[in-house]
Amino acid sequence: MGYWGYYVVARSERPLKELEALGGVRDELMLLEERAAGWQVWECPGGGGEQARDVGSMNSLAAQTGSPALFAYVMDSRCAVVEAAAPQSGGWTACLGRSAMTGYIGGDERSLEDYFLPPADAAERAVAWAAECGRTVQAQLLLDVLRAEAQPSAEELFFRFLDRLGVASM
Q1: Number of domains in the chain
Q2: Domain for residue 58, yes or no?
Q3: For 104-143, what is each residue's pLDDT tens digit?
Q4: Domain-located, residue 62
Q5: In sequence order, what are the residues at sequence separation of 6 or more whose Cβ sits closer than 8 angstroms to the Cβ of residue 25?
Q6: What is the domain range of residue 112?
Q7: Model-level pTM greater than 0.90?
Q8: Burial code of 53-77, b = ≥16 C-beta within 10 A, e = fewer?
């Protein structure tokens, strides 16, 4: 069995677990990485056989930090739901590992669009999200990740997505 859990990513001078927007999972959050320019990556493990946690609202986290923020819910290391929000450009949802995600929703590639933005639209929204962070990113590089299989894992695919968004490691 692979990894099940959330990653929470935002930029803040305070530790994210202190913010009211994440109050419901405060005791379960663990700092995974501190990245350049004040970015933090926190982890909230769990899921799989148990009910998925309610980690809060991306919109609330973005409003509270005054900066774009995102969650990723990784499912068995095979795919991930990405939910992002920014104070100006708003929220959007995409998935990583699309073919594996079709198995979880019990549909086909076309039915993914009932839940998630198509890759090209998600890449466009991600470019706007990055711009709100003060980063200029290439839509094609994001699109490549959004269309990629989760090899070797959805976690690695998610961190590749973060890097391409300009949420750079130190």
Answers
A1: 1
A2: yes
A3: 888 776 788 889 999 999 999 999 999 999 999 999 999 9
A4: yes
A5: 6, 44, 53, 54, 55, 56
A6: 5-165
A7: yes
A8: bebbbbbbbbebbebbbbbbbbbbb
